[in-house]
Every structure is written in structure tokens, then in C-alpha cells.
Give the backbone structure.
Amino acid sequence: MGIPMSVDVRDLTDERSAAEAVDAAFAVLRSAEERFSPYRKDSELRRYERGETAPSADLQEILQVARDASEASGGAFSIRAPDGSLDTNGVVKGWAAERAAGVLREHGSRRFCLNAGGDVVTAGEPEPGRAWRAGVRDPFDPTRMMAVVELRDGAVATSGTYERGAHVWDGRTGETGAALLSATVVADDFTTADVLATCVLVLGVEGVAWAFAHGAREAFGVLPDGRVVTRAGVAGVPVPLG
Amino acid sequence: MTAARWRGTLIYTGTLATIGTLAVTRFGPVLGADQGAPVTAATVTSTSQGATTTQGGSTTGSSSGTTSGSASAAPSTTATPSPSDTTTPAAGSTTSSTVTVAGGVSQTRYGPVQVSVTFSGTTIVDVQTLQSPSAERESQQIAQRSTPVLAQEVLAAQSARIDTVSGATYTSEGYRQSVQSAIDQVG
């Protein structure tokens, strides 16, 4: 994946244990990249694809997540790329980052922010009394934020075409490209946020409302012309706060 | 994967609230229900628990999705929303299920920007542009989009006081230019 990862740990009581936790988390991410890379000829993914190996438990898990997402999205989400090859990147990044977050928790951290190439998973509070603040980048300007999501435990994933171009495809048509310029989803866990964000990107305007029915705590997107899509047309009585 | 950075603080603060609270904060000057009221800039916070947040020393109160607040950094003027291209209810109006608030006019580097935000309960359900920039060469480009992303175009990363950035996956090249790398370096 070659994706920069940033980790911010706030609660491990000495530098050494924090460093160990973070090293272990990064090891998980590196391992996932090696094992499931579609670009490496001898990755576990490619060997599985060629029938040279049975899927490991982890790969089975990833494939199941992909199947569920494909079903839920009416086929828009697909790990079968237009050229017929297997590409699980839409699942693996979130899956691996969730594993990495689990490693941080195993090492005792309850307050951290992990950012895997623009997808964020958080736990706890960075400072007492306030939540983590994840800025959501303006697709048109990397120095500007279009919104800020405040999270304690949860994940924010943004899928978009404005960095790497048309690297997503619509599984229903086999066409590359997406209806939205960007889609952001907030969910309880990273895998869900990551997969939903990709689905919403492909599904387009209808995808924003759809995401809420599939585990999104929040979802919004940006159309290529710059208009913002949120969940619209919500009827009923407002939920009282407090 | 590169740059295994981490930042740690050595303070253990005891019991922490780990409730999965979600809030989406929209910045920008907003009006209260009374259109004639002087416009003050405020932070809009939608939370599921009515918690307050603070920003830059100002305080906000969250209520039933409408906004109240005190002044923050963005200058504001009396707003005159132009309803020409919107289908949302008039600014400050309330339907049985939604509340729409119109922001004051923000002077951005591209020109004046004004949006209205519609809430249903604590959820933002719509954002409409009431005024968008014009004239300048740069703003021509932006104006070709039917609206700037949100009134937050004025919101540079440092003003947003963010801990991290969520965006479309970037490569190492993109990362270097990104706000996230700036955050990592500052930390």
C-alpha cells in the first residue's frame, strides 16, 4: 500500500512501552501490506488467487467482509477489479488498521489516534474532557477542512478520487471512477467505516442515506461540482439531546 | 508504510470517559431564529449527549439542534440570505422536524460565502449555499462549482485545532504536502 501511518498515543506511562506498542501496531500494518498486496507477485493474496495456497484465517475474514459489503451495496463494492484480478485493498486497509488499534489496546492504551493514510481510528480522549478532532479534508484544497468530526471511540474513513484518481470501480458495471469526489463515513470500527466510505463513493448521492442503514454514525460526501451531500429528507421528530 | 511516528504524553489521567460520542462540528457564523438579530460567529455542535465543547476560549451551548454561541475569530456582518437557488426553508425557520440556520457572511479569500445548514435533531441533513464567491480569478474557478465545499473554506487547518486529518488516501508524496504531516511534525 505504501501508505503513511501516523499514531498518537497519549496514555502509555513511559516512552518505552509506548514505543513497543506502536512498533507492534506498525508490524501488523506492514504484515498486512505484504500478505495482501495485489502488487506483489508472491503475496498471499496472489498465491491464493493462483490456487497455490488455501486462504488463511485472516484472508478468509477479509474475503467475508468483502462478500458482506458486496451484498449490502448491491454489488457496487467488489474486490474483483475490472481487469478480473483480485484487489482487496478496499477491505485490507481498514481491517489492518483495526487490527493495529487492537494491538495498541492489548498494550494497554485507551487513548490513541491512529491515522492510516487518511483513515482514522480513535480511542478515548487526547486530553481529559475533550474528544479527538479529525478534520475532514476539503477535496479541493489540502490546507482546508470541510468539517471536523469529534470522536472518542470510533473511526472516520474518507474515500475519494482526488488524490489517486480513479482507483475505485463500480462492481456492478466494471467501470472505474465514482459518482462522488469524496465520501466520508463515521462508524464504530475502522473496517466498517472504510468499507462504507468506498461504497458511498461508488453509490453516489443515494449512498449517503444508504450508509446510515449499514452502520454509519455519520456520512457525507462531495460531488464533483463541489456540492455537499448529507443525509437529506429525514422526517420525524427531532431527537432531544441530553 | 513510512514514518513510524508517535507522540506520547506521560500523564495518566485516571478514569476516562470512553463513551462513543459523535459530534460533527460545523464552523461558521450562524444566525439564531431571529433573522434580525446581530450575527455572531459560533461553533455548531451536534452531539448525542448535549455535551458542550469549547473552541478558542469561546463556549457553545447545544440545544435541540439550533445554535447559540459567542463570538469567535471569524468576522461577521449582518446576513441577508438570498434564497434564489435554495430549496431549503428560509433561514431560521422551523418545520416540525428540521431546523435550518443561515450563517452570516464570511469573507473568504475567494469572496463572500454564506451557507445554511439544516438539522434534524442532532444530524446535519442539508447544507445549501446562499452566497458564493465571484469575480477574482481564483474565485472564478471555485464559483464554477455550484458551491464551495462549506462555509469552512476559511478554515485553515491550524484554525480548526484538529488532531488528525481524514482524507482520501494519499501517497507518500501527497502526505508530505498534507496537513497530516504538518501535524506529525509539530507533535
Summary: Chain A touches chain B through 96 residues (CB under 8 Å).
